[in-house]
TrEMBL record:
Pfam family, one: Citrate_synt
Species this chain originates from: Piptocephalis cylindrospora
Segments for region (Disordered): 20-55
GO cellular component: cytoplasm
Gene3D superfamilies: Citrate Synthase, domain 1, Cytochrome P450-Terp, domain 2
BP terms from Gene Ontology: monocarboxylic acid metabolic process; tricarboxylic acid cycle
Protein name, as recorded: Citrate synthase
Residue spans of biased composition, Polar residues class: 41-55
InterPro entries (alphabetical): Citrate_synth-like_lrg_a-sub, Citrate_synth-like_sm_a-sub, Citrate_synthase, Citrate_synthase_AS, Citrate_synthase_sf, Citrate_synthase_typ-I
Length: 519
């Protein structure tokens, strides 16, 4: 569309601002001018790029309306998406045009939240380009070497490392809340013998909310967790304490063995291993090296910023539901093979490769898009996942105790070959946390369907930290994303007897073959 005089006037109206800023911007490269042509006269006009007096802002030109808008750049290098709501397309009579759907104004379309920040958080920092992960400012490498899972859980939830007295009280409260109500145990007994452990874990976690009506905002007040930190802490102790017990119940149920009662005199990881493995040995204690290896894995999995399951925890929690229900929903998100099930997918990939000699052929099939390379690459990391380096070291410590996992040779060969191949290096595909964790769990005797549960236990600390942070956020609101409606416009109802068969494919009723599959 040819530039109109209105547009020229609109742009020229910002010239005084540009002149006022000339001295301040002289040292910088000047912005490129607009060259506009008036088709009516054939004249061209050179108009400087509009600028605001606020250097921390964007100047947006809406080419549909020739309107200029200033959008402030906020701390954290962000902009307020709601500022775009005022940018409306108008028809010839100056009225707001229809659509856009859902109301006037622009919306930011970002499927899968690839570049959308929905909260301000002080919990976890990730620099994907440099391969940096920090909890509350502490490097993950230092925490994995020197700390324990419960200490890290305290750090994530409350913001600082605990004092000696604080940690003693916190760990005592968590371990004191490891026992499950007998009716929860009975519920776990009701599952089929081959029920997936993660399904049992999610169900048990959701059921826990029914045993604590005083902790249900629907019964005790919608703002109870916003106003009472003692009530919040009580649920934190319960969820952290009972999660390993639920997981152990699911595991023991699968192998047909009676449940073991928790042991308060053991550490968090030791108690979990005890509930998994104790038979009839007197004074049984798990291997301390295996317990420490598991504790480090728990630290590495404790939080990872606003991933799929953590976003689910915040999203569900924004409705002010109880934290058990929110954590159950987050666990369900973690259950998916693209999230918590990724290390299981790595294990199956390595098993399908078979041996070291088959690695080159497998990588070639990956390049040809005939196979998928699991355990490499990450939505956030464009460098080596710092957790993967730590897990690789732990793997050898576990193998020294449990025996060398044969697939480790395939994994090492695959990693070395991929990191030397320009195809994968160019795409910044480096091993992530899932690449070696599955091998460790397999060496420790865990069945592959327990892997998501082993992910969920430590992630409880991160979920609860985000839940607490959202409860304390004065700007907190219920989450309500927008959509872009692409369905039909208004149409009239046609009675059933007068409808023609739609031309598009009908999915129901199914064919006889498909009906047999469904049954």
């Amino acid at each position: 569309m040819a530039p109109s005089k209105d547009r020229l006037n609109q742009l020229s109206g910002h010239l005084p601002t540009i002149k006022a800023k000339a001295a301040a911007t002289k040292a910088n490269s000047s912005p490129q001018d607009f060259t506009l042509k008036d088709n009516a006269t054939g004249k061209t006009y050179s108009v400087p790029t509009p600028r605001s007096t606020n250097p921390k802002s964007l100047t947006v030109l809406d080419n549909r309306t020739n309107q200029l808008y200033e959008v402030p750049i906020q701390p954290g290098n962000t902009i307020d998406a709601t500022k775009f709501k005022i940018m409306k397309e108008e028809d010839e009579e100056g009225q707001v045009a229809y659509p856009p759907p859902g109301g006037p104004g622009l919306m930011v379309y970002d499927p899968a939240f690839q570049n959308t920040a929905v909260t301000r958080s002080s919990i976890t920092y990730i620099d994907g380009d440099e391969g940096i992960l920090r909890y509350r400012g502490y490097p993950i490498e230092e925490l994995a070497e020197k700390s324990t899972y419960l200490e890290v859980a305290f750090l994530l939830i409350y913001g600082e490392l605990p004092s000696k007295d604080q940690f003693a009280h916190f760990s005592d409260e968590v371990m004191r809340h490891t026992f499950l109500h007998t009716n929860v145990s009975d519920l776990m007994h009701a599952f089929n013998y081959d029920a997936h452990p993660m399904g049992m874990f999610i169900t048990g976690l959701a059921a826990m909310s029914t045993f604590h009506p005083e902790a249900n905002p629907a019964l005790a007040g919608s703002d109870m967790y916003l106003e009472d930190s003692l009530v919040r802490n009580k649920q934190i102790f319960r969820i952290l304490g009972k999660s390993p017990s639920l997981a152990a119940h699911a595991y023991r149920h699968r192998i047909g063995r009676p449940y073991n009662a928790p042991q308060r005199d053991l550490s968090y990881a030791e108690n979990f291993l005890y509930m998994l493995d104790h038979l009839s040995e007197p004074n049984y204690r798990p291997n301390p090296k295996l317990a420490r290896a598991l504790d480090i894995l728990f630290i590495l999995h404790a939080d990872h910023e606003l991933n799929c399951s953590t976003a689910a925890m915040r999203h569900i929690g924004s409705s002010h539901v109880d934290p058990y229900s929110a954590a159950a929903g987050a666990s369900a998100a973690l259950y998916g093979p693209l999230h918590g099930g990724a290390n299981e997918a790595v294990l199956r990939m390595l098993e399908s490769i078979g041996g070291v000699e088959a690695v080159p052929d497998f990588l070639q099939q990956v390049k040809e898009r005939k196979k998928k390379l699991m355990g490499f690459g990450h939505r956030v990391y464009k460098n080596y996942d710092p957790r993967a380096k730590i897990i690789r070291r732990i793997a050898y410590e576990v193998f020294d105790i449990c025996g060398r996992e044969p697939l480790i040779d395939v994994a090492i060969a695959l990693e070395e070959a991929a990191l030397k191949d320009e195809y994968f290096v160019k795409r910044k595909l480096y091993p992530n946390v899932d690449f070696y964790s599955g091998l460790i769990y397999k060496a420790m005797g865990f069945p592959t369907d327990m892997f998501p549960v082993l992910f969920a236990i430590p992630r409880m600390a991160g979920w609860l930290a985000h839940w607490v942070e959202s409860c304390q956020d004065p700007a907190g609101k219920i989450w309500r994303p927008r959509q872009v409606y692409v369905g039909p416009t208004k149409r009239g109802y046609v009675p059933l007897g007068h409808r023609d068969v739609p031309t598009r494919e009908v999915w129901w009723p199914p064919t006889m073959a498909r009906r047999t599959q469904l049954l």
